[in-house]
Request: fold
Amino acid sequence: MFVFLALTIQMGHGVRDKLTEYWSTLDQLYTPFYGTMMKRDQYLRILRYLHFTDNRNEPDRTDKNFDRLWKIRYLFEILNATFSKFCNPSENQAIDEIIVSFKGRVIFKQYIPKKCKHFGIKLFNLCDTTGCTYDMKVYLGKDRQRTAQHVTATHNHHMGYVD
Reply:
């Protein structure tokens, strides 16, 4: 699993159009790192069956407080807890807006024509000048921002939700 996660993180540094292109043997795309670390089919199999929650525990979609991130909410909570545990905030902090390329179907996917990645999922990262992330939030759409249960006071203040 560590190799799988390392490959996934590394993919963010050399973006390709298709996932399978990381294992391409074409001269212009060839990067031996991926093939020597893990076979392409093995990586795709893990990716296909990787789940962070039991699908039988799906909350009621008609509930007005339905969490659109319920399948990965636990993972996000672990990441944010780990960020705050291992990073000491500095004086200079910023909220960084990031678009993560995503071609799948989710209702909160954004289209931003001025960004180099036009379609994707918008994230807000609270980070400092060292690049350390302290907190991360997925933008779930205008109608879901006020009802999100896991919004920190910092996000509320910096993102204009102070009552």
